[in-house]
Amino acid sequence: MTSKTRKVAIVGVGFVGASCAYSLINQSVCDEIVLIGRTPDRAKAQALDLSHCMDFTYTRTKIRAGTYSDCGDADIVILCAGANPIPGGTRLDLLDSSYSIYKSIIPSIMGHGFDGIFVAAANPVDIVTYMVWKLSGLPRSRVIGTGTSIDSSRLKTLLSESLPVDPRSVNGYVLGEHGESQFPAWSHVTIGGKPFLDILAQHPQRFGHLKLDEIADKTRNAGWEILQGKGSTHYGIANAIAAIVRSILNDDYKVIAVSAILDGEYGMSDVCLGVPAILTRLGIAEFVELNLSVKEQQQLAYSGSVIRKAMDAVNL
């Protein structure tokens, strides 16, 4: 990445793409945002609306509508184009439409000399991330999906309400597919540094009513609950994207659970899963390979097999 301007392009200007831009602007994450959409007039309207935020933010972020040619000197291209899951289905049901979209988009972006980092947010995000990696030819460290970052945040929020404690004092990760086979790695969840499982064991009268399976189900189904109530999820995932982009541009070395292509990590290869990774200016600098329990190892392997089976269906 040779650009001195912190430039981000967002492909897809629906609820997720526009909310992502809004988060980036309000958090002063980058210097320039280019919105690229299937309908140029909508992209222009979104950019115009967002430009009117500037009088009320700490720094000015230049925002405009553009085309794939604007990706050539971008530091990061965020991929938000795609459909929402249909209630009663799964995110994997979107695979065919996403494949059709991105087998056209990625060559167009790469054809204009893009040499930065892709951040994928479209569903099914683990497979889209893998797809983008294959289509782009970039190193796996520079193709990142939002993965289970939002699911990990949902888990922390649920736990914070039950204990109660500030969600930022909860540390832990949801691993695997951003979908039905995901699971919380309970062996690594801590509250203020203290293992959550120890807290449950030491305080059965206070926390005996908490059921781990129920919390895992609520975490997994949170997106569907939002989808059924208002038709889309976009604020939470937009902030997750902003956190990923901020960590990259600021060279933060922050650990976030993202979709990453595995090559031996956790005993798996040639598959993309949500796992904690250290994010820097170069993308994924290193994986944080957790020492999982036997059950959790089995759950992660199963989640990988679910994703691999779906990938095989489209010959990836």
Automatic annotation (TrEMBL):
One of its GO terms (molecular function) is L-lactate dehydrogenase (NAD+) activity. This is L-lactate dehydrogenase. One of its GO terms (cellular component) is cytoplasm. It comes from Paenibacillus phyllosphaerae. Keywords: Cytoplasm, NAD, Oxidoreductase. The active site is at H178. Belongs to the LDH/MDH superfamily. LDH family. Catalyzes the conversion of lactate to pyruvate. Residues 7-145 form the Lactate/malate dehydrogenase N-terminal domain. The keyword Oxidoreductase applies. It catalyses: (S)-lactate + NAD(+) = pyruvate + NADH + H(+). NAD(+) binds at residues 12-17, 42, 68, 82-83, 104, 121-123, 146. Its main location: cytoplasm. Residues 148-313 form the Lactate/malate dehydrogenase C-terminal domain. It is found in: Cytoplasm. InterPro entries: L-lactate/malate_DH, L-lactate_DH, Lactate/malate_DH_C, Lactate/malate_DH_N, Lactate_DH/Glyco_Ohase_4_C, NAD(P)-bd_dom_sf. It is an enzyme of class 1 (oxidoreductase). Homotetramer. Pathway: Fermentation; pyruvate fermentation to lactate; (S)-lactate from pyruvate: step 1/1. CDD domains: HicDH_like. GO terms for biological process: glycolytic process; lactate metabolic process. Substrate binds at R91, N123, P124, V125, D126, D151, S152, S153, R154, T233. Its EC number is 1.1.1.27.
